[in-house]
Amino acid sequence: MLRNLFLSLFLALFGLGNLQAQHLLSGQVQDENAAPVPFANVALYVAADSTLLKVEVTDDAGIFRMTEIPTGNYTLEVTFLGAPPLRRNALSVDRDRDLGVLKMEPAAVELQAATITATRALVEIRPDRTVFNVQGTINAIGENGIDLLRKAPGVTVDNNNNINVLSRSGVLVYIDGKRLPLTGDDLTNYLRGLTAEQIDRIDIITNPSAKYEAQGNAGIIDIRLKKAENTGGNGTASTTISQGRYTYYGTNLGGNYRNAKLNIFGSGNYNFNEYWNEFMFNSLQNGLRIRERNDFIVENATTGFRLGTDFFLSDHHTLGFLVNGQFSDNDDRSGNRMEVFGNPQATVFDSVLIADNTGRRDNNQQTYNINYQFNIDDQQRITIDLDYGRFRNDALQDQPNRFFAPNGEFLSEAINYFDTPTDIDISTAKMDYERPWLQGQLAVGVKFSQVATENSFLFFDVSDGIRLLNTDQSNLFDYDEKVYAAYVSFSGKLDERTSFNAGLRSETTDATGELSAFRAGLGAPPVDLEYTSLFPSAGVTYQLDPDRGHTLNLNYGRRINRPDYNVLNPFRTQLSQLSFETGNPFLNPEIVDNVELGYTHAYSYNFKLSYSQTSNQITRLIGPDAVDRRASSISWQNLATQTIWALNVSAPITFSEWLSTYVNINAARLDNQADYGDGVTIDLQAFTYNLFLQNTIKLPGGFTGEVSGYFSGPGVWGGVFRYNEQGALNLGIQKQFLGDQLNVRLSFNDVFFTSGFNGTSEFNGLISEGSGNWDSRRAALSISYNFGNQKVKSRQRRTGLEEEAGRVGG
Asked: Going by C-beta distance under 8 Å and a sequence separation of 6 or more, which residues neighbour residue 409?
């Protein structure tokens, strides 16, 4: 019945007639010398939600004309190579308008302060998102996806590679507008397989509108991959080598061919990376002291491809296909040493566990998309997306556990072998409809998604080289989740200075999980979840001074974070003979309410104050094991509440024609509360801050230098781990040759090797001090060459598509 209601709502709104007047918007773009600027891009965005309405290109006289513009409030942006963007906010269109002369500023002005190339700023603050332009920073070369997220404004990555935004956990990762259904080590390995040379930009959306799915408490990180966008035939070839303790090298090749009827684009890459990380813990539990050291070395070889095509069937119909694939092989070696002291004051351990593991993980990931766009007219469009993804991950691991006495005498041995494949299939069908309505813009849509996972944990005891399945510790866990969603959103204008948006999304979740044990009596009741949730969102923007770019905006949104399938598995898994992990099938989904108040000064300086309260925060906790007093156990629990106040400030500053700076500051206060009974509580408050700074220096001879870095103050990871300060300093230099077609970049990252972590945690009788490092101090050299027709402007679509069509225009 609920699904029929969604469909009826969609069809009823689809049938609404066109009630909106249409107008002409025109003007002329000139440079600082009053000369016309031909072939400049002129983009018109809906002010309420930054949706791209139309793009045109100026002619030889610098003149542009946009027809059939509905009455409304817009933002106009003019961009051209070698000049900072020209913006006109609070642009009201209620009649035919000639904007007259729009004069672009020279490069050395305040709006260009954060720019290190001639085209884009390092960080852009838009009404609905923060954009981190990876291709705008020299110091990004030689980095992978995880490394880049550490540098992104407002984003932190903890010691377990969990991603937080504005100190909030539960972020969703998208690739080109498509959700990536991976978590934990699978997500980390995927992001490590993406290089900076493949990534164009990272969109950080902290308060998504009703158009986006409600999953993800901290919002969405959308990684947009680079592709050629010009007409004709063109492409880019690049190679990078990076040296730290170990070596990384990678090659990338991308190309594009576009004409009036067809667009074909594709890319391929191969990367090899050997990296290491280490962490140490000194823990007190059950009257014992445990001193632990772990060293990891992983060899990763990744091959990826991306192939897409768009058929422009007519002015109203576009059909597109897209295939993505990534195949990676990971060989890992890890050394685990755990010394057990009989009392906290002892200087000599009673016994030591040595577990030197070797393993192999193969990831095979493919996604397929069919996209159809029907432009009913210049104001109404329907978009349909059908997606299917296959994620096959095979993992094998040898784990010898050997105990020794202090004098080196061998005490005991238990050799184990693990076979833990994971298969994920995801299917989605999505339809959106947009049109002007009642002096505003209406959007409605429906979506169905299904995720089916099969997880095997096969535990073998090894004796004399023979593996015997341990049926007491092996299990199969299958999890199936269906989500039925529908949304409606509306944006409009209250007066000349005030615009608003409001939306409501409904999601019905139907999920089942079944644990199959190999021995009777070791199973668990199936997980069976079914619930419907409503997710309202709203925002208002007020132009304090439209001419000077002073703007206030207030946004509210509610979101959900469902437990990952792997943490619902109630079976006890072994990380070593003194370390275990147990899932929790009774985890509740998190619900978060976010409120954000923003202020923009002079188009450039941005301030954002946010408040969020999360009920049933899902968190990872480490406490004493219930079976072995020497061991620790990881569990997953719900916190009662998590409250976060956060402040973000970003500012471009120009000191001179040769020196400019971009500053981004985040500060937050976090409060975690939980009571699990029997005196097991969490009552933790912390204040944390993060400073990101990038200086761009124009050097003689056409060289560009870059000095950047970050510093993070103390904070909290997960539920109880308090970490101390950390930071890094990066240096880079760049020069272009052959008419800017050949680009050579050299960078030095984490020069002083200060990005490692250290901190303490206390929970349920376990007190622990920990620290860690990874291969962050590196030197990298990158060479890229652009070939083909790079001067012809890209084909401009008459309508824009942001969420689902990264392949037809970013």
From this structure: none
Phi, psi of 84 (to 5 degrees): -70, 155
* Residues making up the chain, counted from first to last: 810
**Residues 6 or more apart in contact with residue 627 via CB below 8 angstroms:** none
The whole-angstrom separation of Cα 429 and Cα 369 is 10
CA angle in degrees (0–180, nearest 5) for 301-362-587: 125
Compute the distance between CA of residue 711 and CA of residue 691 in angstroms, rounded to an integer.
5
792 backbone dihedrals φ, ψ, rounded to 5°: -75, 135
Residue 483 near residue 429, CB atoms below 8 Å: no
Amino acid in the structure at residue 287: G
Residue 607 corresponds to which amino acid? F
Q: How far apart are CA 510 and CA 529, in angstroms?
A: 6
Give pTM, 2 decimals. Answer: 0.73
Longest dimension (CA), the chain: 90
Least confident of 316-330, 402-416, 664-678: 664-678
DSSP state of 405: -
- What is the C-alpha separation between 88 and 79, in angstroms, rounded? 12
> Which parts of 376-438 are beta strand (E)?
381-404, 410-419, 422-437
- How many whole angstroms separate alpha carbon 780 and alpha carbon 788? 27
Alpha-carbon distance 316 to 396, whole Å?
A: 51
**102 phi and psi, to 5 degrees?**
-110, 110
Which position has the token pair 């498509």?
A: 178
Angle among Cα 96, 97, 103 to the nearest 5 degrees reads 160
| 33's tokens | 């010398």
Of the CA atoms within 13 Å of residue 362, those in its CB half-sphere come to 6
Based on C-alpha coordinates, what's the Rg of the chain?
Answer: 27
Q: What is the mean pLDDT of the chain?
A: 82
Write out the DSSP string of 108-150. SSGGGTTBSSSS-BSEEEETTEEEE-GGG-GGGTT-BHHHHHH
**Mean pLDDT across the stretch 96-108?**
79
* DSSP one-letter code for 629: T
Other C-beta atoms lying within 10 Å of the C-beta of residue 58: 24
- From residue 399, give the alpha-carbon distance in Å to each of 164, 312, 333, 335, 713: 32, 56, 10, 10, 37
What pLDDT is attached to residue 81?
60
- Please say whether the beta carbons of 530 and 507 come within 8 A: no
d(CA 612, CA 596): 9
Give the C-alpha separation, 648 to 377, whole Å: 40
Write out the two tokens for 286: 């059950």
Q: Which residues contact 110 (CB under 8 A, 6 or more apart)?
A: 602, 604, 652, 654
Q: What are phi and psi of 734, to 5 degrees?
A: -145, 145
DSSP string, 545-591: ETTTTEEEEEEEEEEEEPPPHHHH--SEEEEETTEEEE--TTPPPEE
* Nearest alpha-carbon partner for 249 in 273, 276, 277, 267: 273
pLDDT in tens, 399-408: 999 999 999 9
Both structure tokens of 257: 């061919």
Provide the token pair at 45. 């965005």
**What pLDDT is attached to residue 581?**
86
Amino acid at 571: F
Which letter does DSSP use for residue 472 in this model?
A: T
Distance separating alpha carbons of residues 121 and 663, to the nearest angstrom: 12
Classify residue 791 by burial, with Cβ atoms within 10 Å: 0-12, 13-18, 19+.
Answer: exposed
* Rounded distance between C-alpha atoms, residue 137 and residue 375, angstroms: 37
